Automatic annotation (TrEMBL):
Name under which the protein is recorded: Protein-glutamine gamma-glutamyltransferase-like C-terminal domain-containing protein
Source organism of the structure: Pararcticibacter amylolyticus
Keyword Transmembrane helix belongs to the record: yes
A Pfam family it matches: DUF4129
Organism placement in taxonomy: Bacteria, Pseudomonadati, Bacteroidota, Sphingobacteriia, Sphingobacteriales
Annotated Protein-glutamine gamma-glutamyltransferase-like C-terminal domain residues: 171-238
Entry keyword set: Membrane, Transmembrane, Transmembrane helix
Transmembrane portions of the chain: 99-117
Amino acid sequence: MKTINIRLPILLLMTLFFSLWGKEAISASVKKDSTAVSLRTFNQGELNKYRSNAEFNYEEGGEDVSLSWWDQFWNRVWTWIRRWFGNIEKPGLSHSPGYWKYIFLTLIAGVLIYILIKSKGLSLSGLFSRKSPSIEVPYTEFSEDIHGISFDEEMGKAVEARDFRLAVRLLYLRSLKHLSEAGKIKWVPGKTNSEYVRELRHTEQRRIFSVLTREFEYIWYGNFPVDNRMFDRIRNAFADFDKGGYK
């Protein structure tokens, strides 16, 4: 009991000592800031000067009045392009040759030329290919009457006009007429060429006429160009067939 009575006062004294020492240490570490504070103000005149300078205006949407109407136009064009196609690099006004600008002008010119060609009823392929002058013939594509065509006269017109594709078609129609008159085929408007070939019973005759038919279709329906030399060869082939094809 005596031991407990002695220790208790000692513990109380130690607790009081350390609590007082901690307060003193804390109070000693805190110092009052006595530094003088200098307040700084904005120079309103300088701010107004920068605000009035266009070079320090970074807002978009305004037009620079110092630019020409042409430069202002391209600024608007590039704003529209970036809005729709993303932020592609815009060449500066001082850049040369202005790569994207000339591409855009080329596209516009191409569209205008295309509209002009279509308005005139022209064909784009016809502008880049040499085509024999066409002549009027007394029959249409699907309803020609082979028994009412003057083949010698019409073929003479086609050759004179150097429309050799039409001349080859006339050679083929004339062969159909001769085969029909000889009873080898039954000519009917709208019947296909392959049907006429199958009607021929003679094997060699059918083989030769099948070759002539394919060549005619390749030239006429495939728009294959025919020159004078090629036409002479085809005309001789039809002439050889005419000699023995109707017996």
